[in-house]
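Retro notes - structure team

What went well: the batch runner handled both jobs without manual restarts.
What didn't: labels got mixed up in the shared folder, which is why I'm recording both outputs here explicitly, each with its sequence directly above its tokens.

Job 1
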Amino acid sequence: MPQRPTRGNNQPPTPPEINLVAFQAAVSTAVTVALAQIHNGNNGGGNGQGAGMFEICGCPDEVKVKFATCTFVDQALTWWNGHVEAMTLPVANAMPWT
């Protein structure tokens, strides 16, 4: 976790280095799990969303990561929020679906 600046140090903290290959693999795994939950009607909220959510919503590829991450709950949501904090939301949402 980045350190907070001290009173005498006005320099912003250095962001952590991110292994993009490992990060994309982790995101891919998390999204696959979230999609499986949606497909099985269990997105953690118990509202029974069924298969084909992307098709039903007409979700284009360029926003599928953003859409899928909105379904994260519990540990997946905590994991995603940590990565968003490290890389900023616009960068995280701009990740390619494939």
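Job 2
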Amino acid sequence: MAFAGLKKQINKANQYMSEKIGGAEGTKFTEEYTEMEDFRAKLMVSSKLRGGARAHAYTQPEGTLGECMVKFGKDLGEESPFGLSLIECGEAMKQMAEVKYALEDNVKQNFLEPLHHLQTKDMKDVMHHRKKLQGRRLDYDCKKRRQAKRAHLSEDEIRLAEDKFEESFNLASMGMFNLLENDVEQISQLASLAESLYDYHNQCAAILQSATERLNEQRNEAASRPKETYQPKKLHELNIPSLHDDISPQVEYGASPARSPAGTPVETPPHKSLYLGGLTAGGGQTSATSPGRSPNRSPNGFVPAKID
């Protein structure tokens, strides 16, 4: 850095510290410039949106729902009225997704990109001139203060600082003035945004109206079809073997004797004599005994003779 530039930076720092700490009064800007500064600050806050065209790296919810409807509608088959209705509604959802992609592209191109240009180009130029104006004001006030203290300063230095300060003031004021007077273009961008939203909703309404009419027609067609009633069927009508076909018949009491796997009758053990009220199973008469008592002793102690 040249000596003159270094000296200028020292003078700016000296003036800045004198104003902030020493209470020195700097040059006041006009009221018009101050009002433009306030509007510029508000515009900076409102221009934080970022534009720029980007590839669609995401899917719309309407498109995802439409894909699912079409897929499961095809799984049900063309003979299913509900399947055809699912396909019809799914195609409408996919069309709405495409319309929404078009809306986003239109908004980015006609609204967000001009706003992004305003922030990165026009506002940046204004900020540059404002920063330069602040430095030249400090240099001008420093030289003016030194001149008031009868410091050794030439008239050319004072005039040069004054001219640069005036130039920067006019450039910064012109930039903010042009920025704030650009109402026509900014309103046109807002109108473009509203028009894009209007077209989007109109197209979605037309798609949904057509889908609704078609779904109502399919509902009427399904309602006009002859109704079939379900008739309960027996298992033998369905050629399904019943449960008792696989189970062997049980041997009832008094039926023919059971047979062994070889086919020969199974021998039964011989019957023992049963005392039933003095009668044996073979028909012979004997003394009366109860089944719970021993057959060899009566209640009176009399032992009956054994019958062979």
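One thing worth noting from job 2: The helical segments are 3-20, 31-46, 61-76, 81-148, 155-180, 183-224.
We'll revisit the folder naming next retro.
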